[in-house]
Amino acid sequence: MTRLQHTATRAAGHDRLPLSGLLALATAGFVTIMTEALPAGILPEMSGDLNVTEAAAGQTVTVYAIGSALAAIPLTAATIGWPRRRLLLLAIAGFAVANTVTAMSESYILTLASRLLAGVVAGLLWALLAGYARRMVAPKQRGKAMAIAMAGTPVALAIGVPAGTFLAGLIGWRYTFGIMTLLALVLLLWVFVSVPKFPGQARSAALPLRRTLAIPGIAAVLVVTLAFVLAHNVLYTYIAPYLAENGMVDRIDIVLLVFGIASLLSIAITGALIDRHLRSLMISSCVLFAGASLALGLATDASWLVFVSVGVWGLAFGGAATLLQTASAEAAGAAGDLAQSLVVTCWNIGIAGGAIAGSFLITSFRPTSLPWAALVLLVLALGVTATAKRSGFPESAIHDTALDRA
Predict the structure, then answer these.
(1) Is 13's pLDDT higher than 60?
(2) What is the dihedral of CA 271, 272, 273, 275, to 10 degrees?
(3) Strand ranges (DSSP E) for 141-237?
């Protein structure tokens, strides 16, 4: 057994959760989401400094998603044999470089290029996180480990992005991106100290993309991921015009706060139950989100129903990334990292597709059509989840895979 394999085995067999390492992974996810979403709250300032329209400044979010979607699969496949911690450190360093360039750039084109780089390393990092968290703990603790490692996403959306937007108003958007660079540099040291080394996968043992897609359960997980994330982003991206249509334009911040708090609660629930109730949790998420969408579709001039529905929506969505990535990892076994890259790609297609579909709906119909479109997608997600009982979404998330024995 090599020294790297010994380290992996020792970490996986340890009964105590390695909280410092898992929180470092969660912080990596936090940096990723903050880097992606921060421009949405500071578009007027960015557009003014870069001498472009707000619509053009908004493309800094679009190119980030495109970079993640295009790079996740090929980069993960190309680096499958690399030592995992080295690859993780390189991805975090990529964020430090991209955010530094974004903070200092006076050129719109250079800013777009830096955002594209950030999206590329985000695609690689997201494909690493789930497998890394699972390998750091014993099988019975994988669900809790995944929930902790994935907590950076709802924390960033619920707290980080609003705080970053507020901070940008105080010190300027460039300094805010500079703070993101400093956080990435601190995270590099944190990961180096707290996250164990794991070997990459031997190329001779790595499955090609076509065979990974053919693994039972993988296709079901990807379809549910795409439908669920499309439904979320159709609503979330255009929540402001939906609320304005319902006479709640001045309560957007409170609505998003309710969503964020419910999402954090969802992460805690998911972490406590996922190891034994993966299937039930995924079905519950689809049902709750579908119910919330139906209520939002019916909530004409009923602000209390909007708040309740958004809270239920947050409960459904907060743990979704953990559930979907766990389902993918369990189904894929030794092909876990490549399967995660497929989930990341579908997730980013859902983000971009949701923005495009939502734009069409509010232009061609009315913002109140958004919940109904989401409901159709969620019925699809629920149907696929319900039929993927043997593979894809089994009840228990505890299995001994080939990767765990590596």
Answers:
(1) no
(2) 70
(3) none
- Fold of the CATH domain 209-387: Growth Hormone; Chain: A; (1.20.1250)
What's the rounded Cα separation, in Å, for the pair 21 and 184? 15
Compute φ and ψ for 277, nearest 5 degrees.
Answer: -135, 40
Inform me whether the pLDDT recorded for 400 exceeds 50: no
For the chain, which residues make up each domain, given as ranges? 3-194, 209-387
CB 136 within 8 A of CB 21: yes
User: Could you please report the per-residue DSSP string of 90-153?
Assistant: HHHHHHHHHHHHHHH---HHHHHHHHHHHHHHHHHHHHHHHHHHHHTS-GGGHHHHHHHHHTHH
Cβ pair 85, 28 in contact under 8 A:
no
Task: Look at residues 88, 89, 98, 87 and name the one whose alpha carbon lies nearest to residue 35.
Answer: 98
Architecture of the CATH domain 3-194: Up-down Bundle (1.20)
Instruction: Dump pLDDT digits (tens) for 307-318.
Output: 999 999 999 998
Yes or no: say if 333 and 403 are a contact pair by the CB < 8 Å rule: yes
This prediction's pTM: 0.78
DSSP 141: G
The answer, yes or no, to whether residue 403 has pLDDT greater than 80, is no
SS3 assignment, position 91 = helix
Which residue's structure tokens are 């790079």?
A: 71
Other CB atoms within a 10 A radius of the CB of residue 44 amount to 11
Instruction: Give the C-alpha separation, 68 to 337, whole Å.
Output: 15
Fold equal for 3-194 and 209-387: yes
- Cβ neighbours of residue 134 closer than 8 Å, sequence gap 6 or more: 142, 145, 146, 329, 336, 404
406 has pLDDT over 50: no
